[in-house]
Write a structure and sequence with these properties.
It contains 4 helices and 39 strands. It is mainly beta and about 550 residues long.
Length: about 550
């Protein structure tokens, strides 16, 4: 009989031998079966599993080959191969060794550099390329063979090391591993606001058939669209973050990395990955096909990708991504500051908007004074467009700045909490009479546990080198009121906001030696086992008070 030889070159790291050569007589089913058995025994790691998604790692410029065999036994043997690049574009081909001319194949979802070859070969054994592709899109090849054949898949990455997933199936009757996309897989933008974008898309047929096992997941970022969930996860990992395996958005519990924030509300899971290159937000919303993305930045371009995910297999299919730019926020109204005038500003914590104040200098040296009344406030001061102050403030804060006459200062204030905050602001030249009194090193009130009795407590506080007036007030409170009283205290309000019955005393004192500038006071006439809130107000030359930090003390039950 006439002999024919064929040789497939295998990766060198698998065996010392560089190639596997087989001698086959005029091709028969038994010879092909023998070849398959030997190949499986010695090179089983190269056999592509049927009905299972396989992850393949590629090294730059080193081709990798996988094999599969179509068995004889059916009139026509259909098969499907889906390749998903998870990073850079790759090249991949399908080669077939066959002994018959009966072969039919077609590319199902190709759009980049695809080529289909269907040749009738009369030679007893021939290797031919039936399909090749180059790109980073998810590509599916659907083929059908009427005789037993050995197939080889060759993969190559020319840009860098990467990985891909490959899915081979010869069973086209048991459903799809990947969820189906609708005939029109585009995402439509139906609404754009300052901080929101509303999206809608057509339902996947898989959602309509298997609603309990399918969900939609949305990925939002500021860089570009992703053609697969695999590519999106790879990009996030490359920025230094770690994601849960395969389906980063499944509702099963897992531990998040420090750079990740998870938000679960109204049956929606949101994961925010805070990377140095920007924020990547992932949201799973069940089977809803309309979603409004909240908490975006104004005047910013965002890219949106929707993936339909099979929760049983973790396989996903990507809709055609889209992008939109949020509406630019109008410039906030700017209020003019005048020398020596005090302005109190209330900041909306929910809207997180800036409140702007402007001042044109009439002196070279000026001083900004901020007294935090409630909440937490971030201060940003620019001089002629350049930042000179940027920090969060607490209590009383002074900023002394130098410049030129007619320099323009812009003060922007924002609450750093979700609740409202308020702050008093004053700007004045250095020689201007100070609004607030000279402050001690600490505004804390100290109580002495050993000096507590059933009807009295002793408190102490620091003073200054200036003779000043100090007024003490007390208020009886319940256990469940402590947190709210301390939280809601208005540190800008003076004794005028207090009931007359709460006043204990007023006194003057000072000491040139700051080490001795301490005063104590014993408050008597209290009830046993009772909580009291104590406040001290300091008055300076201008009469504007500064409130010390409130102190809660409980009298003894038994004496």
């Amino acid at each position: 009989l006439k002999m024919s030889w064929f040789c497939f070159y295998l990766p060198l790291h698998l065996l010392m031998a560089a190639c596997l050569c087989y001698s086959i007589k005029a091709p028969t089913t038994s010879s092909l079966q023998s070849f398959k058995t030997d190949l499986f025994n010695f090179y089983h790691s190269l056999i592509l599993a049927d009905g299972k998604e396989t992850t393949i790692h590629l090294l730059k410029d080193i081709p990798k080959r996988y094999y599969f065999v179509l068995e004889e036994g059916r009139a026509l043997a259909p098969f499907t191969i889906t390749v998903t690049p998870c990073d850079v574009p790759i090249e991949w081909s399908i080669l077939v060794h066959k002994a018959s001319a009966s072969f039919l194949g077609k590319a199902a979802r190709g759009d980049h550099d695809t080529q289909e070859v269907s040749k009738s070969q009369t030679a007893p054994s021939m290797v031919s390329t039936i399909f090749n592709y180059k790109g980073n899109s998810v590509e599916t090849y659907m083929g059908m063979s009427s005789h037993s054949a050995l197939y080889m898949l060759e993969f190559l990455s020319t840009e860098r090391d990467t990985h891909i997933t490959v899915y081979l199936t010869t069973d086209t009757t048991s459903g799809h591993l990947y969820p189906e996309l609708p005939m029109d897989p585009r995402i439509d933008v139906i609404g754009i606001g300052h901080t929101t974008v509303t999206l809608t898309w057509k339902h996947s047929p898989s959602v309509l058939q298997h609603r309990e096992n399918i969900q939609y997941c949305l990925l939002v970022n500021e860089k570009h669209n992703y053609k697969s969930l695999c590519a999106a996860e790879t990009a996030i990992r490359s920025s230094g973050l770690k994601l849960p395996p395969t389906l980063a958005l499944s509702l099963s519990p897992y531990l998040l990395e420090p750079q990740q924030v998870m938000i679960l509300s109204n049956s929606e899971l949101s994961i925010i990955n805070k990377a140095s290159t920007g924020e990547v937000r992932q949201i799973c919303m069940g089977t809803k096909n309309t979603y409004t993305v909240p908490n975006l930045s104004p005047s910013t371009q965002y890219y949106f990708d929707v993936f339909v995910v099979n929760l049983l297999t973790n396989a996903s299919a990507a809709y055609t991504g889209t992008f939109a730019r949020t509406v630019e926020e109008p410039e906030p109204k700017v209020m003019e500051l005048k020398d020596g005038k005090v302005v109190q500003v209330v900041l909306d914590g929910k809207k997180q908007k800036f409140y702007s104040l402007q001042y044109q200098a009439r002196h070279k040296k000026i001083q900004f004074t901020f007294q935090l009344c409630h909440g937490q406030v971030r201060v940003h001061i620019t001089k002629n467009g350049k930042t000179v102050v940027l920090e969060n403030i607490s209590g009383l804060r002074y900023f002394s700045l130098k410049g030129k006459l007619l320099d323009t200062y812009l003060v922007q204030l924002r609450s750093t909490e979700e609740s409202n905050s308020s702050v008093k602001v004053q700007v004045s030249p250095h020689f201007h009479k100070p609004l607030f009194p000279l402050l001690p090193e600490s505004l804390k009130i100290k109580s002495f546990s050993k000096l507590r009795t059933c009807n009295s407590v002793t408190i102490a506080w620091l003073g200054t080198q200036d003779e000043s007036k100090y007024c003490v007030y007390k208020k009886r409170i319940e256990e469940d009121q402590v947190w709210m009283e301390l939280r809601s205290a208005d540190r800008c309000s003076g004794p005028e906001s207090r009931h007359k019955s709460e006043k204990v005393l007023c006194k003057y004192f000072y000491d040139i030696n700051l080490q001795r500038a301490v005063t104590t006071e014993t408050i008597k006439g209290l009830d046993a086992g009772t909580l009291y809130l104590f406040d001290v107000y300091l008055f300076g030359p201008s009469g504007t008070p500064v409130r010390y930090h409130s102190k809660v003390v409980k009298t003894r039950k038994k004496c």
